[in-house]
Amino acid sequence: MIEVKNLKKSFEDKEVLKGIDTVFESGKTSLIIGSSGAGKTVFFKCLLGLFEPTSGEIIFEGLENNSKNADADRERREQIGTVFQYSALFDFLSVEQNVQFPLDMFTKMSTSEKKDRVHQALTRVNIEEDAFKKKPSEISGGMQKRVAIARAIVNSPKYLFCDEPNSGLDPETAIIIDNLISEITHENNITTVINSHDMNSVIEIGEKIVFLKDGLKAWEGTNEEIVFTDHEDVSEFVYSSNLMQHVRTAMQKKEKK
């Protein structure tokens, strides 16, 4: 679980986050959404520890983020897996070497132990063994995303952060990635936080949704609640442009299941 208490972040004289309170629960997929400029990327980076909040608290299972305790900060980092936008794999490393990277950084496992863990992670995300030795440029975008997820979970994290995980993917592959993230979250009781603009992801796996506007939490609820909310800002965001089509399509899929 991650608790956020009155989180604020300013850059010089510009206040981007203006006091956010929320809780991200273990074993659930939580999505941060909002229009451009709402503050969701800054919020996401504060959660990851890439930005230090101006004030407020981010508490990981009772352990405050950005604490002054170096050992505590290292322990927290070891418990975090991250799926970056566009996968961010190392081009010069093979698929299995990419996945092994966090184990080299944070563990003292033997070579054989690392190999076993890497193969388990790759198998879990449905990567065939004949792709293990390939470079990222030799596999598809969807496979690259699955490799990125394998790298994020290879260290058995308590927390999984995904930044726009469906960027650049076709709709069918995006659904596969959404379902994979959701399955892994539930299987391992991970606290998963996703920064997203994809309304299909919101409807498919949004067990909790935090909607930001102008640096504030304007609304939060579930994927079912967001479709029927009478909150003006949320409704405008959800039903603007072609988003409504995605919502209707996703809801129809859920009704058929």
UniProtKB/TrEMBL annotation:
Keywords: ATP-binding, Nucleotide-binding, Transport. It holds the Pfam family ABC_tran. Residues 2-239 form the ABC transporter domain. The lineage of its organism: Bacteria, Pseudomonadati, Bacteroidota, Flavobacteriia, Flavobacteriales. One of its GO terms (molecular function) is ATP binding. This is Glutamine transport ATP-binding protein GlnQ. InterPro entries: AAA+_ATPase, ABC_transporter-like_ATP-bd, ABC_transporter-like_CS, P-loop_NTPase. It comes from the Bacteria.
